[in-house]
# Entry
Amino acid sequence: MLYLVLADLVLLVHLLFVLFVVGGGLFALRWPWIAWLHLPAAAWGAAIEFMGWICPLTPLENRLLDRSGESAYEGDFIGHYLVSLLYPNELTRSLQIVLGFLVVLVNAGAYGWLFFSRRRV
# Structure
């Protein structure tokens, strides 16, 4: 039971981290100090996608699921949880690159807005 709760906790942290990577630049519009946390997180998230790596939280979650008696999943977090919700096909390398560019574009837009709006003041 404890391992299943820990696996769910890792899943929640992983999901919140992915959401922060994708949209954290929008928080920086309101709270500029968040950029110091967000930029390294966004760089890590984009690197994971561009390089085809698997986030270390995925094997941790799988180990906890295995220890709890549940079955682990194949692939990475995005492919298993997010892409399966949004797209019917498996995660492909080209889709991973698109997701990486999405992270960069959303956040570049937010930080561009933050930079140029502060320069006008």
The two ends are 55 Å apart (CA to CA). The CA atoms of residues 55 and 120 lie 39 Å apart.
